[in-house]
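Case study: SOS cell division inhibitor SulA.
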Amino acid sequence: MQLSQPLNQTQLPLFEAFMAASAPALPQEALKDAWQEQPQAFSELSLRGATRHCLTLLAPILRELSENDSERWLTLIAPPSNLTQNWLREAGLNRERILLLHPRGEQSALQLAEEALKLGRSHTVVSWFHPLERAARQTLENAAREGAAQSLNISLG
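Here is what the predicted structure looks like once written out:
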């Protein structure tokens, strides 16, 4: 079968680091400057279907993020109840590099994600908003830029 148009494959900013694994490490200040120049500090992944299948697709992405060479954390904000410690272990994630955070009291998951991003202690902060309003998306993107981090929202439907 021949396609009339070439496939346009765009690399997401979140995954560029994995493609350049052999590149030398940059100083923290250089990383911060690179993130400030980066036009995208926010990515979104939408998964639909049976929970078991969605988790199977999600596992390698989270595993790669948990193995990031950065000294910063992979932070999961209020993950779905089926992302248990047992699931993380079976999926092969590096649980020593993951923070699982849940909002407390009056704090919303969005406020917690924004705070985690701004602190800059995480290389990636994963949220689970469905749907994600435009204003909330902008809030996460701005916070990610401020903390030189990546915001990833996973929409499970």
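For the exam, be able to explain this: The radius of gyration is 16 Å.
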